[in-house]
Predict the 3D structure of the following.
Amino acid sequence: MKFTIDRGALLKALTHVQSVVERRNTIPILSNILMRADDGAVELSATDMDIAVVEKISADVSQQGATTVPAHTLFDIVRKLEDGSQIELGGGSEEGQMAMRSGRSTLKLATLASEDFPAMTDDDMPHSFSLEAAALRSLIDRTRFAISTEETRYYLNGIYLHAAEGDDGNAVLRAVATDGHRLARMEVPIPAGAEGIPGVIVPRKTVNELRKLIDETEDDIAVMMSDTKIRFAVDQIVLSSKLIDGTFPDYDRVIPEANDKFLEVSCNRFERAVDLVSTISTEKSRAIKLSLGANSLVLSATSPDAGSATEELEVEYDDGELEIGFNSRYLLDITQQIQGDKARFALSDAASPTLVKDLEDEKALYVLMPMRV
């Protein structure tokens, strides 16, 4: 194998594929990237056995072939080479080393046989549709903060993606995430071909890798899925992943419908006040108290070590006095997703879940469990 490639193009592709590779691997080949040179292009592949990413980039190929090289080492080297330079790579598995030249720099990397590199089986994907990059970006951004990190509840370690009926009766593609303390739900009009898709749980790592990729495109994303796997095609990149094998809970049961106390706040002022007052709250609970009265909201926090803090805001509220506590970090996570100027809280009492909506975007919905303060 031998080819010459622009440093910028190689660096961009390596940025995409090497992030899938785990830093610590008990299987040496999984620390490597597969490089396959053929017909004016080089294909880079990486996998952790759950996720696989493949990207094809143009190159001047003088000798076809394939080999695998250490992912993070190659990335670090290319990152440190001079911008605008050309990189020549040659050699392969047979020699046990790959030579790398750029300007006056010459390096050699250890290789492993390309035949030993695992390939994710190319399963049949019966469901396929295209989704605008902005729509997929919105589904991810408005929900991923609520993904659980508790490994014992593995079925909550991802975003639940499924076809559903919206509040207006129209079909929607809906994304939901919850960790048991808060829930985030976002939906977009259902794209053609997605009407009959199964409900699938896309793992957290896959969600994060996908989010990086769609940041660099405005083109439509091709989505293919089966009951066990999902695949996203973004420009010249294909990201494939196993799905979480579990049953996502019936989230509709935790979305309150009878909350009869309504609070409207300026999102920026509320977020700033929560952030300020929570500085005093204890590190473990991060609890703050919201005291509601006629068109008034007082936020407060106390800590035996740090002291106390209060801030009063003018708000739209006229449904009787109420005191309720929240984890300030969870509250900030939700308010940071609000795109409009105002957020609307639908409350019931100090022990019941609170519903939060963006007044300028009814497609997004959040639920937050209160805490005792």
In short: The domain at 2-116 is CATH 3.10.150.10 (DNA Polymerase III; Chain A, domain 2). Helices lie at 7-18, 71-80, 133-141, 204-214, 267-277, 328-335. The longest helix spans residues 7-18. Residues 353 and 369 are 5 Å apart (CA to CA).
